[in-house]
Write a structure and sequence with these properties.
This protein has helices at about 85-90, 125-145, 195-200, 210-225, 235-240, 245-255, 275-300, 325-345, 360-390; strands at about 5, 10-15, 25-30, 35-40, 70, 80-85, 95-100, 110-115, 165, 180, 185, 305, 315. The chain starts with a strand and ends with a helix. The chain is α+β, with helices and mostly antiparallel strands. Strands 3-4-5-6-7 form a 5-stranded antiparallel beta sheet.
């Protein structure tokens, strides 16, 4: 994740913020530029502010929320925007839309096809759970957009589009988190930390997060988009195995008999050993985990200069999306996770990275890296061709 700053006071803000905690200005994320911007109400004149003051700017204070906002970010200062309706009305989003955009929902919220019931008296926390789900989803989308793998909403592209359904268990129906035909279903209970920890213990997992579910299920979606039925399939099978093996039988065997002995020599997790599809999804999720963490470290300027000469030094020279060499990413990753785990142990917390990556697992991650790089280049070329065609035809 990038680092973000308030355009008014220059203090650091976070991806999830809706206001700057220092100066009080309203914030919104502009996905097309991947920037967090500060905004003033459009029906008030632009004002000059003293960025050094801790007091909220007058232009950011109104008794009623305005419908249109003016960006003060240098990228598009003065341009008009609207809050996503889930931002303005439901307070579960912080993304903005161009004022000329015909949609009421932002690019993230348009991907959500089903939300939890907000009028369920028996589940008054559904709005809180929905908010947590949307936060995790937006973090996933930030990584996908950075890698130039932006998904299209399924209503716009029935064959290749993506949608999310956030469902809750019913008396006679248990919701299973999963993916099918471009639809990712998440059981909203996974947004409850107590439930998630209980499931982590039952499944004997070292690591279980809400964002991890989104990353894993997106792996199934991108398998269909980037691997199935194309020239990459043979290389996939050489590393992950034959995905045509019966999926149901493989999972049944996994849950009844447990993982194969020595699974850790070839798989990133126990679940990855159940079937090649799950191996891919777990490896894909792990790559996104590495990608986002390294991007954060790069954006924050993290460096390691150990006092002992034998310990690995670290200077991250480029964002992971710009790094062609997987070996360099892996080197940076091993150095960074050693320090992350050491810091966690210093404050009495479990390791933040409880994994060991074998050589076969690293080769699978290398494959994911290559696929992501190739797909990003292809996507960028497709956008350029589309823009060129529009210019030729006179469409701006």
């Amino acid at each position: 994740m990038k680092t973000f700053h308030c355009d008014n006071c220059s203090k650091q803000v976070f991806f999830e913020n809706t206001v700057c905690n220092h100066c009080g200005w309203m914030l919104g994320y502009q996905p097309e530029h991947q920037i967090m911007s500060s905004f003033t109400p459009a029906d008030q004149p632009e004002v000059q502010t003293d960025a050094s003051t801790d007091a909220p700017a007058d232009a950011a204070i109104q008794s009623e929320a305005p419908s249109r906002w003016r960006s003060v970010n240098p990228v598009n200062a003065g341009k008009l925007f609207r809050q996503c309706s889930n931002y303005a009305q439901e307070k579960v989003c912080n993304w903005m839309l161009d004022d000329q955009d015909e949609h009421a929902l932002c690019a993230s919220c348009r991907l959500t096809a089903v939300i939890p019931s907000l009028d369920d008296a028996n589940n008054p926390n559904n709005r809180i759970l929905w908010h947590r789900l949307e936060v995790a989803k937006r973090r996933l989308l930030h990584s996908l957009w950075t890698m130039r793998l932006q998904p299209r909403p399924k209503p716009d592209d029935a064959s290749n589009g993506l949608s999310f359904e956030f469902l809750q268990d019913m008396p006679h129906e248990k919701i299973m988190t999963g993916h099918a035909d471009g639809v990712i279903t998440i059981n909203i209970a996974e947004a409850d930390p107590a439930y998630r920890e209980k499931m982590r213990e039952q499944m004997a997992e070292p690591y279980r997060t809400l964002l991890g579910h989104f990353r894993h299920e997106s792996g199934h979606y991108y398998f269909d988009r980037l691997i199935a039925g194309n020239a990459r399939l043979d290389a996939f099978r050489a590393l992950f195995g034959d995905e045509t093996a019966d999926y149901g039988q493989s999972l049944q065997r996994h849950y009844e008999n447990g993982p194969v002995q020595g699974w850790e020599q070839n798989f990133v997790s126990v679940y990855a050993s159940s079937h090649p599809w799950e191996d891919w999804a777990e490896t894909w999720a792990h790559y996104l985990h590495m990608f986002d963490t390294l991007e954060t470290a790069y954006s924050c300027g993290v460096q390691l200069r150990p006092q002992h000469r034998g310990e690995q030094q670290l200077v991250i020279d480029a964002s992971p999306v710009e790094e062609d060499s997987f070996d360099e990413l892996a080197r940076e990753w091993f150095a960074l996770t050693y320090v992350l785990n050491s810091l966690n142990r210093s404050i009495g917390m479990p390791d933040s990275y409880p994994f060991t990556l074998s050589t076969p697992v690293l080769e699978k991650l290398r494959f994911v890296h290559a696929v992501v790089r190739e797909a990003g280049v292809e996507s960028e070329a497709g956008v350029s061709e589309s823009q060129e065609a529009s210019e030729i035809s006179g469409i701006s």
